[in-house]
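Submission checklist for the structure archive. All mandatory fields must be present; incomplete records are returned to the submitter.

[x] Identifier: phosphoribosylglycinamide formyltransferase 1
[x] Organism: Denitrificimonas caeni
[x] Residue count: 245
[x] Sequence attached
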Amino acid sequence: MINILVISDNVELVSHMQTLHKKLKGIDFKIDYRFSVVNKNPDGLLSLGMTCVDVKDTEAVASIVNNYDLVISAHCKQIFPKELVENVRCINIHPGLNPYNRGWYPQVFSIINKMPIGCTIHEMNEHVDHGAIIYQRRVDVYSDDTSLEVYNRVQNAEKELLNEYFKSLVLGSYKATKMKGDGNYNGIEDFNKLCELDLNHYGTLSEHLDILRALSHGEFSNAYFTNCSGDKVYLKLDFIHRRMK
Ligand code: 0FX
């Protein structure tokens, strides 16, 4: 029996993975789903039958190591500790094309620094988004994309990889390849810094459009400046397309 634990804070990925169990026909397996304890809004995950786990808790880690053969992290809000990744096979589904823009919100940084973007399924080690690469898929970025369009394209690519390789991931029948270099990493503090617009920043209009579209993601309030009354004023880009025919 292969015992699998999926730890995810992403409703869409979990819903998708739950449709893939049929791909494991003929394999003796059990899959449990958990969300991370730091998730402040787990309603959607609770409605998928999930319960919570704290991967920073020593007893929880020991229990995972003793009871599971494979842990799949699918957009988990907690970073897995060394004790977990070194004692059970852990793989991560990451919304970025490692080693480029590892860490937070890869597509935001790719829109600005033009590094490739896509998704990566990789073995986990103690560093963030860093282990050997199992499967990857690159996606395009267009000049009229905001962060949201690129993110949706990345998430579709993640689902495609899962459709194609779920069985191989469960069985461990893949060849993982060491990353070519460490690439670069962006933390949440880099994202927060980007959000605080510097109104004296010099650059081309194209560079400024890139910053604003990278920080535009549906209903999220990201980019802001502070007005003369000391209030934060948030802004985002909304592209309107007109066909010229
Ligand atoms: O599932 P996910 O892409 O993110 C999760 C975790 O929340 C995150 O901590 C972890 N690093 C990642 C691998 O998995 O969903 P999300 O809703 O947190 O973010 C989705 C996108 O939404 C993100 O790429 C950029 C955008 N976003 C998100 C937040 C919270 C914003 O533009 N502003 C925000 O404040």
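[x] Structure attached
Curator remark: The mean pLDDT is 97. The pocket of dTDP-4-amino-4,6-dideoxyglucose is lined by residues 9-10, 75, 77, 95, 104-105, 147, 151, 217, 220, 222 (CB under 6 Å).
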